[in-house]
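Technical note accompanying the year-one report. For the benefit of new consortium partners, we illustrate the data format agreed upon in the data management plan: each record pairs a sequence with a structure-token string. No post-processing was applied to the example shown here.
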Amino acid sequence: MLNHNVTRINYRMALMEEPINQKKKGLLDRPVRLFWPFTLFIVFAVVICIGWFYHINKIANLRYTAKHVMKEEIRQKAEALGQTIAVTSRDDIRNSDFNKLQEYFIDIAKNNPDIEYLVVMKLNGEAVVHTDTKFRGKKLQDSLAQAALDADDVVVSEVDDKSLYDVAVPVMGFTSKAAVIRVGASFERSKQAFEAKPKN
């Protein structure tokens, strides 16, 4: 009986010796079984996001490249057209056969939707031929006209606010420049093709 009482006393004393401030284990102290699945989910989500942004950026770059390729193609065609007209119309310009050129230019503009205007300017700035007839016979004094008159070679000016290229090609006489051919080529169509929002 005595031994049994001693054992009970010792057990109570052991309980009293436990740290008073001992805390119970919380959720953060327990092993987290969802640690690896959660980590894999985060990694997977990051990879998906990176792939998506890469895809979007690639599409944007392709659109940008295609747009500028189309613009460059329009510029090259306008330059080639101006140089061709400067050669084939040389005799008509020398002979002042401007009515013939007027009809020829209007026909070219009708069959080329990117052509905004075709002009033959004398060295004093007078537009002796112009597909926009309200300017025919008038002196053109804008900055593009002045740049064209000053040119001794092909000059290409990009006019962003009008979405066009102004290509100036000198027409040579027997010994010097006799006139200037100007081709206005619009790249508005290329802008609309790549900036238009898809229809729902």
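Partners are asked to follow this layout when depositing records. Residues 1-6, 25-30, 196-200 have pLDDT under 50 and may be disordered.
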